[in-house]
Write a structure and sequence with these properties.
- The complex is a heterodimer of chains A (174) and B (427).
- Chain A starts with 14 loop residues before the first helix and ends with a helix.
- Chain A is built from 6 helices and 5 strands.
- In chain B, helix 5 packs parallel to helix 15.
- The chains are: A alpha+beta (174), B mainly alpha (427).
- At the A-B interface, helix 2 of A face helix 1 and helix 12 of B.
Chain lengths: 174, 427
């Protein structure tokens, strides 16, 4: 059994192409077309003026993390350590304590994510049985002037709202 | 020497020294913004002073401040520190000096005395350029060798091999040009190109020597170490090539030297093959004899051009996103006002020349006109350098050598034969 063999035509061997200059001029005509269009009207540039114009983030984008809450404002996290165990970068540090709001027995008293360690793989979101951790804040740019500021604490994680509606997030395949 | 002699001497030397330096800024800007526009990007357009960005030219100031204030490192392993420091100086100074023999206007006659409009009024012309252009590569070789770095040495070796191979076709192309012009003085070469062929075609070198022009331009690209022949600094193979160990302003010198070399070789190409300072169909005598009409026409043309330019500024200098009270529109209005003030100044100057038409004033007007023509032509040639750089990929080393030795060398020899035969047959 022999497969189909497609013989590719070798280019660049005939005199016309070996003269080289004609092909160069053709290439230069193409680039000059781009130049003159942009020069005469620079609104035609394929450019997003970034800090002023933000990119459109889809619901599937894995941005900075947040912890979700129930409707009554109590946190969904039950400190099961699934995300911490699953984290390949070992960036989640949870300390469990007794639950005070009466929903279940456990809740985290400390929930730190070190964003400098995090590789934004989203395994914590997949591992979570309570849908308590999500990466749907739409924050793609995490900056800080000192290392300490990159460790997100429990309150900061709870304070960030999601950037999308529940339907959009579900449609994204979560 | 009269006071006029001294004044003109100073002016000419200042022109030869400062115009290439000013063009560094223009060329770096042209390269970056041009590259961006070729690739549908916008390039550096944020750096500003009080909101004035000058189309991105302010970025050059920021870069210069950065380069000057960076730490000037001489690595410990460099044994010959003197040569290490000398190398960028050679590259920069040689590039600057080779502009000295290029005429930027026709011989200026004031009160019956003739002034050759070159920084160094010499007849050496093209020989001066050839001598210095070959010397510039010593700086690159020295930089590569004294860096004591394998990438540096490889870059230097490549530069040496490349310049040797391309200097031969370049020299041979010049020989056939000299056969046509019959002189080595660049001023006389430019004067020769003011004539008309068959009475209606400007007798530019590119018309008389099309093959020679192509060979010379290709070789000049290789001499200036520009893409597609910038193997000496091929970053994908050699990191940065010969300047890999250089930092701060020593790197800056290499960088500026590259742009001065680009300006100089553009100036030489323009002088040899594109009529130098000559306006097509308008010889110096025609212009001097009709100085009144010329200045009147210029008085009409300058505002018309300025009007189109202001339209272009207004169209392109604005933000492309919603912005309350767009500062770029206000910036554009300031530019347009400055433009019209400049136009007003030029109009007064032209009126002055029109009233005084005749004598020294006419000669000075024509000289100014020719300087502007020369600079515009050189800028266009520099644009071709940028254009080619952002169109063609880099040559492979063996392709470079085979192009030089197997294609350009035989072609330039053939060109000499044909040219000499035609010249002998016609004379």
């Amino acid at each position: 059994m022999s497969g189909k063999v497609k013989v590719m035509e070798r280019k660049g061997k005939d005199l016309y192409e070996r003269l080289y200059l004609i092909e160069i001029f053709k290439g230069m005509a193409v680039t000059f077309g781009h130049f003159i269009t942009n020069f005469l009207d620079n609104s035609k540039l394929y450019v997003r003026h970034y800090p002023e114009q933000k990119p459109e983030i889809t619901a599937r984008w894995r941005g900075r993390h947040r912890l979700t809450t129930h409707e009554d404002g109590t946190m969904k996290c039950v400190a099961c350590f699934m995300c911490q165990t699953n984290c390949p970068a070992k960036c989640i540090m949870i300390e469990a304590g007794e639950r005070s709001d009466g929903r279940t027995e456990k809740m985290p008293v400390r929930f730190d994510i070190d964003l400098l360690e995090c590789i934004y793989c989203g395994y914590c979101v997949e591992a979570c049985p309570m849908d308590a951790i999500r990466m749907d804040t739409g924050i793609f740019s995490v900056t800080g002037s000192e290392r300490g500021s990159f460790v997100m604490g429990l309150n900061a994680l709870l304070a960030t709202p999601g950037a999308f509606t529940e339907e959009e997030y579900k449609k994204g395949g979560a | 020497m009269s006071q006029l002699d001294i004044l003109l001497l100073v002016l000419r030397v200042a022109f030869g020294a400062f115009v290439p330096l000013c063009f560094i800024a223009v060329l770096v800007w042209m390269e970056r913004r041009g590259a961006a526009f070729f690739q549908d990007r916008s390039g550096p357009n944020r750096a500003n002073i009080f909101g004035f960005r000058a189309a991105g030219l302010v970025q050059n100031l920021a870069d210069a401040v950065k380069l000057i204030t960076k730490e000037d490192v001489i690595p410990d392993h460099v044994k010959h520190k003197f040569y290490f420091v000398l190398a960028p100086v050679i590259v920069f100074c040689i590039a600057l000096m080779s502009f000295a023999a290029v005429p930027f206007a026709d011989v200026l006659v004031i009160n019956g005395k003739e002034y050759i409009m070159q920084a160094i009024p010499t007849d050496l012309g093209i020989l001066w350029f050839l001598a210095l252009a070959g010397f510039a590569v010593y700086g690159i070789i020295l930089a590569g060798w004294s860096s004591h770095n394998k990438y540096g040495v490889l870059g230097g070796l490549r530069a040496a091999a490349q310049v040797i191979s391309y200097e031969i076709p370049m020299g041979l192309a010049i020989i056939s040009a000299l056969v046509v012009y019959g002189t080595v003085s660049l001023t006389e070469i430019a004067q020769f190109q003011g004539q008309l062929l068959f009475g209606f075609i400007p007798m530019w070198g590119v018309v008389l020597q099309p093959l020679g022009a192509i060979i010379f331009i290709v070789a000049a690209f290789a001499e200036a170490n520009r893409t597609p022949f910038d193997l000496a600094e091929g970053e994908s193979e050699l990191v940065a090539g010969f300047h890999v160990e250089y930092s701060s302003m020593k790197f800056g010198m290499f960088f500026m030297g590259e742009y001065v070399a680009m300006f100089t070789s553009s100036a030489i190409i323009v002088t040899l093959y594109f009529g130098g300072y000559q306006l097509p169909w308008l010889t110096t005598e025609t212009l001097v004899n009709h100085a009144g009409i010329v200045s009147f026409l210029l008085m009409l043309a300058v505002p018309a051009f300025a009007f189109l330019f202001s339209l272009w500024i207004r169209k392109n200098n604005k933000s492309h996103y919603d912005r309350p009270d767009d500062p770029r529109v206000r910036e554009a209005q300031v530019y347009i006002k400055a433009l019209w003030v400049l136009v007003g100044g030029i109009e007064v100057l032209l009126l002055f020349f029109m009233v005084l038409s005749g004598g020294a004033a006419a000669n000075i007007l024509v000289a100014l006109l020719q300087i502007i023509t020369f600079l515009v032509k050189t800028t266009l040639m520099c644009f071709v350098y940028v254009w080619v750089r952002w169109t063609l990929p880099r040559f492979r080393y063996d392709q470079l050598q085979s192009l030089g030795w197997q294609t350009l060398l035989p072609l330039s020899l053939l060109n000499i034969l044909v040219t000499s035969a035609v010249v002998v047959a016609l004379s």
